[in-house]
Amino acid sequence: MTTSSSKANKYRRKKKFYKKRSPAPVQPAQRLPAEQADLFGSPGLHPRIIPRPEHCISRKDIDREALKVLYCLKDNGYMAYLVGGSVRDLLLGKRPKDFDIGTNARPEELKKLFRHSRIIGRRFRLVHVYFRGGKIIEVSTFRCRSEHDDREAAGNGIGDANIFGSPREDAFRRDLSINGLFYNIADFSIIDYVGGMADLKQGIIRVIGDDPEHRYLKDPVRMMRAVRHAARTGFTIEANTWEGLLKHSDKIRLCAISRVREEWLKDLRSGYSRPWAELMIKSGLFGSVFPGYVSALESEDKGLVRKLLFGLLGHLDRMVNDGAEVSDALMLALFAYPRLCVTPEWQALKVGRLKWPTYEVRSMLSEIFLPYDFRRSVRDVAVQILSSQWNISICLAKGKWFKRVWNKAAFRESVMLYDLVQEVLGQPVIGPDPHLRPGPKPLKKSGKRKRRSQRVRRLISESEEVRV
Predict the structure, then answer these.
(1) Pick the catalytic residue: 100, 170, 192, 419?
(2) Do 398 and 350 share a structural domain?
(3) Catalytic residue (one of 89, 150, 170, 175)
(4) Residue from 38, 75, 98, 373 carrying the catalytic annotation
(5) Which of 185, 236, 328, 338 makes the best surface tag, with the fewest CB within 10 Å?
C-alpha cells in the first residue's frame, strides 16, 4: 500500500509545470477612444502582418523556456506574442538578454495556468514563470497605458478593466516604434501596428505617434530611451523626435528620481556608455540628469573633462563587452573622476604626503550625483577608490608602496582607475608587474614548533603541581 502511494506521489511530482485548461475565448480588437485615436493620428485598426518567409526570426533563436510558455498559452486558447526588445534584437541578429511575452490572459489566469509562477507588482501586475537553473520568463497582460500612466491609474483607484487592453493598444503605449513589434507563435508572423519594421530597415529611432512632444510630456523618460537605443544600434534619431527632445530635455527633472537613476545606471552597464554620453551631451539631457556636471562641461577645462569622460567610458565599454566584472563602486568612481579632477577642492588635496581625504571626497561625490542616492556600501568603496589616487602617485614618486595604501580593500580597483586615467592622458601606467601591485603577504610556515615563553612555561608547571 505504501509503495503504490509513493509511486503515485512520484508521478504527480513529474507532471508538467503547467496544467491544460479549457480554451478561453479570444476577445476581438476594440476601437480606440476618440482621444487616443486623435493622439495616434487615427491609424487603421488592422496591423501589417509580416509572414515567416519575409523575416529572419526562427524558433531555434528563442529560448526553450520561452517557447514552452508561448505554446502553453496558445494551446489554452490565449494570444501568445513575443514582445518588445526581444523581437527587435532578433531582427537585428543579436541575442536578446530577456524574452518577454505578452498575452490577453489576466494575471490570475496565468497564475492558475503555470504551476511554478508568481504574480509580482502591486500597481501593475506581472507574472514570473520559474524554471530550473533560475531561469525566469516574464509574462504580462496587454495594456492600454504606459508604465507612467499605470502608476497614476493605480493611485486614482482605476481598476484592471481600464488598465488592460488589446494588442493594438499595447503596441501604441510603448516608447519607440522599433520596440512595438510582436512575434506571433501561432503562425510565426510579425505583427506591426506602429511601422517598426520600416524603421528597423531604414535605421531610424522614432517615438510612436504623430506628436513626439506630447509623448515626452506624458512620460519624459522616453527621451532617455530614445538616446539609449540610438547609442546601442547606431541608428539616426528621426527629425521630429530629435527636435522634441531638444525642446523638452529639462522636463526629465519632473520624473521620479529612482526611475531616472535606474535608467542611467542601465546605460552605464550596457557596454555602449561612450556613444550614450556623447548623445546625452549633444541633446542637453546630460546637464538635466547630472546638474553637478554642468559647470565642468562649461569651464575652461571642458576639453580635458570631455577627453577623460569619453576615454574612461570607452575603457568601461571594453571591459563590459569583454565580460569583465565591474563593480558599481568602480563604475561610479570612473564616471565621477573627470568632473572631480578639475575642481579646486580636488587639487587642494595634493599635499605631498599620505592622506585619506574621505570626508572631502564624499562631499564632492554627493555634489556630482545630486539628487541621486546609492547604497552606503557602494558609496563608501567609491570614495575609497577616489581617495587613493593621490596616495598612489606619492607611492610611485617615492618608489615604494606603503602598507597604509596597499592594505585597503579597494586597492586593486584604485590602481585600475589610476591606470585607466593615465592611459587616457597618454602617461605611463603601472601595468601588470606584481612588484608594482603589492598585496598582503601570505604567512610562511616554518615547520618548527614555536618555543613557549618563560611565563607560559612557569604557569603550566604551576598548574601541574596543583593537580598533583
Answers:
(1) 100
(2) yes
(3) 175
(4) 98
(5) 236
Q: Which three cell numbers stand for residue 18?
A: 503547467
| 196 and 213 share one domain | no
CB contact set of 141 (below 8 Å; sequence gap of 6+):
102, 103, 104, 105, 106, 107, 110, 125, 164
Choose the final residue of a domain: 237, 255, 289: 289
Q: What is the pLDDT of residues 267-302, one digit of tens each?
A: 999 999 999 999 999 999 999 999 999 989 988 899
Grid cell for residue 400: 615604494
Q: Are residues 87 and 23 in the same domain?
A: yes
CB 263 within 8 A of CB 301: no
Distance CA 345, CA 298 (A): 18
Nearest to 362 by CA among 338, 342, 345: 345
Are residues 171 and 61 located together in one domain of the fold?
Answer: yes
C-alpha cell at 273: 556608455
217 and 196 in one domain?
Answer: no
Cell of 396: 610611485
Can 317 be counted among the known catalytic residues?
no
Same domain, 64 and 140: yes
Q: Considering only CA atoms, which of 220, 21, 174, 231 is closest in space to residue 112?
A: 21
Q: CA nearest 422: which of 312, 331, 345?
A: 312
Q: Is residue 158 part of a domain?
A: yes
Q: Give the model's pLDDT for residue 120.
A: 92
Same-domain pairing of 267 and 361: no
Helix, strand or coil for residue 249? helix
Question: Is 219 among the residues known to form the active site?
Answer: no
Q: Does 192 participate in catalysis according to the annotation?
A: no
| pTM of the predicted structure, to 2 decimals | 0.79
Q: Tell me 386's DSSP state.
A: H
Domain that holds residue 113: 13-202
Number of compact structural domains in the chain: 3
* pLDDT < 70 positions in the chain: 1-45, 145-162, 432-468
pLDDT, tens only, 153-199? 444 444 454 588 899 999 999 999 999 999 999 999 999 999 999 99
- Residue 237 is part of a domain; what is its CATH number? 1.10.110.30
Domain assignment present for residue 464? The answer is no
